[in-house]
Amino acid sequence: MLCQDNFWNESLSWDTEEPKFTQCFKDTLPLIPCGVLIVTAIPWIIWLHKNRLALRAKVKLKPTTCFWSLKSMTTLLLSLTFAMSLGINLSTRIKRDQDLQGSGILHYSVMFASAAFAIGLVVYEKARVAVSSLPLLIFWPLLLLAMLPSNLEEALQKDHDTDLVFLILNLPSILALFVVNWFSDLSSYDLAEVGLGGLGSKVSPTKLSSHMSQLTITWLEPIIWAGYRKPLVQKDLPPTQDNLNVKDNVDVFMKHWEDHVQELNVDFASTEKSKKEVKLWKPLFKSFGPLLFARSLVGVVHYTGTMLSPLVSTNSPKYV
Predict the structure, then answer these.
(1) Cβ distance 266 to 275 under 8 Å?
(2) pTM given for the model
(3) What whole-number distance in Å separates Cα of residue 101 and Cα of residue 126?
(4) pLDDT by residue (tens digit) across 185-233?
(5) What b-and-e string marks burial along 181-196, b requiring 16 or more CB atoms within 10 Å of the CB?
(6) For 121, what's the count of Cα atoms within 13 Å in the CB-facing half-sphere?
(7) Residue 55 pLDDT more than 70?
């Protein structure tokens, strides 16, 4: 068996004055964020590979990409600190238990692999001139929550010495990694040329803002402060996002339209009556279908949660 004890033991974790978690629970819970990291990183890497070239064409880079930036070096250092804490915890656990359960072997294998993958992802994102990492922004807070049971029990140990080094390095490094990923890394961009954050920017602030900034809409703050100091005019406002720009949307549609026409080998200048039928919905769907589907899915989740929340809040006390 993978675990020598149960995943959840109610008498050990709930019906007691000193609640504890089973070793299987502590070993298995952190695997969930690791799975989320892989699931979110795959489409993210594909997107970076396909779309960052277009961003480079619109935003001027420095002559050499600044890999050794403050954010990338801090992220790599904290990731190595996290991996070191895992190694220390593994050594301490082997000394205590003399033998690892199957869940323990799986736990440390996946955690070390995830740490190495996170480091590799940072390097790849810097090579692709990504300013922020969406998978890591999701991964680190989830891992922080998943590692809490292990850290809490380690801090409350009474029957043997507490692994203080693990406690000092593990949670603080994860928390620091989460905070570092709030910010964008603009070290590779010529900000004097781009004019980001100032009046008359040549690129949309959302283009080079972090995902946390987009989530909290703090990228709008420089424009608000500028408008507070003096009235804004049209030239002070930055460009809109590409997906809101009519020209960019038309260019996307025309590319798929021309591919569709070429695929059917249709010549509109010909006077022949036996032309193949060109379906407008196909290039339209290729141009905007995936984005429309994704946003519709988010809308369904949002409105479902909004409608169900009163029912949940009304009926949940019955089951407590």
Answers:
(1) yes
(2) 0.74
(3) 38
(4) 776 666 655 555 444 566 777 777 888 888 888 888 878 888 888 888 8
(5) bebbbbbbbebeebeb
(6) 27
(7) no
